[in-house]
Specification:
The protein is mostly helical. The protein contains three helices and two strands. The protein is flat. The model has no long low-confidence stretch (mean pLDDT 75).
Length: 138
């Protein structure tokens, strides 16, 4: 049963590969036969370029804007509800810290250690290098 499935899978993949390669290599000239026109900008005659710029400028000058909207009573009745927003800090000191604990720097807590020689317990505080803080989640 497994052998027939494996043989069928290999045969179907082989047929698919052969048909795909025939399709790709048969239509190799597809890009040359395409109907898409490509316009290439050629640095031609400077007078032609100048004439094009002048014609575009004349088209822009022909545009008439109606500024009567600015004197319309509906436009004049609009009110400005502008609110100045307070400046917020642009970055966090630790972007991976939980929200609300950005500025919290925890001091190392003394760890009680029992001294087997003296039989007494004393607290030892290990100083951390500059810029290193402890994380309560570790």
């Amino acid at each position: 049963m497994k052998q027939t499935k494996k043989t069928f899978l290999i045969a179907s993949l082989s047929i698919f590969t052969v048909l795909g390669s025939v399709f790709v290599f048969e239509h190799k000239s597809f890009a040359q036969e395409s109907q898409i026109a490509v316009e290439v900008a050629v640095a031609g005659n400077p007078t032609e370029t100048g004439e094009q710029i002048l014609s575009l400028l004349q088209e822009l000058n022909a545009i008439q804007l109606d500024d009567s909207i600015f004197s319309d009573p509906m436009f004049l009745s609009l009110k400005d509800f502008h609110i100045d927003l307070a400046e917020e800090p642009k970055q966090r000191s630790n972007p991976f810290a939980p929200i609300g604990q950005d500025e919290a720097v925890l001091e190392p807590t003394p760890v009680p250690v029992s001294n087997p020689i003296q039989g007494k317990s004393s607290a030892i505080s290990i100083p951390l290098p500059d810029g290193v803080t402890t994380n309560p989640y570790w």
